[in-house]
Amino acid sequence: MNLDDVAAVLPLLQFSITKLRDFAALAEKESHEFPYGNRIKYTSEKLQCTLEDVCKEFEKHKFLFYIPLDRFTTILDMLLGAGISPQYILSDMWALRYNVSNIKRRLDMAKEAQIRTLKPWMLRCSLKVFYNKLQKEVAREKLLGESSVSEYLAQQLQCDAETIEYLGSKHPPILRIHVSKLKEILDFLYREGYTSQHICQVPRILCHSLETTKSRLAQLRELGFNPTSLIVLCKSKREYAQFLEQVIRKKNR
């Protein structure tokens, strides 16, 4: 197979002798067609990764040996041309099994929607999931523009970047929440009379279910209790139930 680095090709020894002979025959057949002499070296060069990493992927996904040359090279070029990280491609080679025109159609749609970070799974997921992802990314671009989630939060919470960095270190999930969800939660809290200081004091409220937050706030206010801190709204179910019992007891005294 013209693979001289013995250490790099060790993953291929997981295959049986029969399989290796089949792959060697395929490699010899296409040696004059594939750039760099065979598809394993070609993939390593295109994705700028080690031969060993590519061999590991070929060992995990035997279909990579059988994909027609035109489709293999065309899709790789399309993915790289669309700005998809070579590392993302290497760790998810399934897109190479799909129809070239379908891959192109999705790449064009993603480009039109100005999706910044594309991943191979988006090109092979169901249309429903793909459209949902596009909608979320369009909403993200509309809200963020050139800003990051951290910058958006700093603006919305009227604080500096250091404060957001600190909040993110204490509650990492807040920087991974989709910006449209953040906007919904922030809009609701501000509408209900809470301030940026209230939110900064209890940042995990941003990770909490908005429906649960709404339900709890309405329930407590109906009982005549208006939370001055957001912490009660994001307690565990057990803790909230205990707190609710206390509020009910005080009301019935």
Walk me through this protein's architecture.
The termini are far apart. 58% of the residues lie in helices and 0% in strands. The protein has helices at 17-29, 39-46, 51-60, 69-81, 86-91, 100-112, 127-144, 149-156, 161-170, 179-191, 196-201, 210-222, 237-251. The chain is elongated and about 85 Å long. The model has no long low-confidence stretch (mean pLDDT 88). It has 13 helices and no strands. Helix 4 packs parallel to helix 6 (100-112). The protein has 253 residues and is mainly alpha-helical.
Main features:
13 helices; 253 residues; elongated; mainly alpha
- Provide the helix percentage: 55-70%
Flag low-confidence runs.
none
- Sheet of most strands: none
Number of helices: 13
Order of helices and strands: HHHHHHHHHHHHH
Our estimate of the beta-strand percent is under 5%
Rough outline: elongated
Q: Please provide the count of β strands.
A: 0
Q: Distance between the terminal alpha carbons, to the nearest Å?
A: 85 Å
Mean pLDDT: 88
Radius of gyration computed on alpha carbons: 26 Å
What structural class do the secondary elements suggest? mainly alpha
Helix-strand layout with pairing:
Elements: H1 17-29, H2 39-46, H3 51-60, H4 69-81, H5 86-91, H6 100-112, H7 127-144, H8 149-156, H9 161-170, H10 179-191, H11 196-201, H12 210-222, H13 237-251
Helix pairs in contact: 2-3, 4-6, 8-9
